[in-house]
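Homework-ish question, so no full write-ups if that breaks the rules, but can someone show me the predicted structure for this set?
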Amino acid sequence: MGSEQDNTIMRQKLLMELNEKILKQKKELDAQVEDLIVEKEHVETEKKKIEERNIKLWEQSEAIHREKELVEKLKQEVEIRHQEVIDSISYAKRIQSALLPLEHEINKALPECFVLFRPRDIVSGDFYWFNEKDGKIFIAAVDCTGHGVPGAFMSMVGHILLDEIVLQKGLNDPGKILNELDNNVRTVLRQDNQDTSTRDGMDVCFCIIDKEKKTIDYAGANRPLWIVKKSSKEILEIKSTKTAIGGLREEAVFFQTTVLQLEKGDTFYLSSDGYADQFSSQDKKMMTKRFKETLLSIQDKTLQEQGKFLEEFHVNWKGDMEQTDDILVIGIKI
Amino acid sequence: MAENSFTAEQSAKTPSVNFDGTSGVFDLKGKSIPENSVLFYKPLFDWLDNYIQNPAPKTTLNIQLDYFNTSSSKCIVDLFKKLEQITKNGKGEAQINWLYDDQDDDMLEAGEDYKSIIKIPFNLVSFTK
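A: Not a homework solution, just the prediction itself:
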């Protein structure tokens, strides 16, 4: 019996131990479960955060996308506008070109002659004006204030006024023509009034050529006349009146005519300041001095060749530099 | 001090401007070919209008331009006229140094033209590049 009792006690002890073990394991499991729950919560908050972040990123990317689309759209609009402006100015160029004298007409009257005309932009503030009247040749190189569109507006004014002064009013003295042009420009642009006035004007080199007598009547507003006598090694400069046509005037100015007797084989040049003012890719200015030297160095060439040479020289000088100003050079051999 | 000087960085189309209101030394250098000259010179002129009310005893403008367009040339005259005002008002002395490349006849001639119409000391100073 005693052993049976022993057995029972043993079993009870074992059971208790087992029970204790199970309880311990349960506690451990409970702890693990708790950990897992905490971890799960943690994972869930993380997940929520990530989801929120995702939403934010999505919104941001959407915003960026919309922005990009807007920029793209604006870019397209600017491009369209730009093209419209270019088209419009290009069309204006047709009008300006239509007003310019025809090359073959000039060549017919002046067989040995070149006109180098290189606007800086599409339309030009420089222009040249040509007419034949009473057996004489009227030719002018004109440089209006500015370039591009404002220059071109001014050139229209100048061109029409010269037509009116020479062809309708019949003036045939360069000094008088420039005086009349000056008065008319200031009237047309209301430059008599300090408050409303624009100060824009034009520099002019005006010549009347008598081919029979081989004389030139010259008057200049800020632009000289250059003459290279046949087989001469220097440039003779006929100085201009140092005032532009138009603009504010403190005192009256009179443009003077100079009459020059030339001989067969003499060459003369009318120009704007654009050629000499061109900067090279090393930012070096061409300058009048170098321009004159270049002209002297090409005196053995025909006038047509001179025009081509000057153009190539300019292109090389300019390199990748922007063109400074409109360029106009006219060369004529008697 | 900011109010006592006027500066502008040189750009491809506009000159560097360095006007020191305390010392009265004004430097202007480079090219002046802005598309709208009046707009470019306006802030400088506004500053100058203020300066000439109370200028340094001696104001010297050193102006060295390679090239300027016609519309700038009118602004340059206006600039010189403002400096004339200093002497005219008896508030100080002003003078102009026109610096030009000795090879550049055009800039010499431009300087001579300005000199002939400006009523304060105007020095033509050549330099060799």
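Now go work out the reasoning yourself. Hint: Chain B touches chain A through 14 residues (CB under 8 Å).
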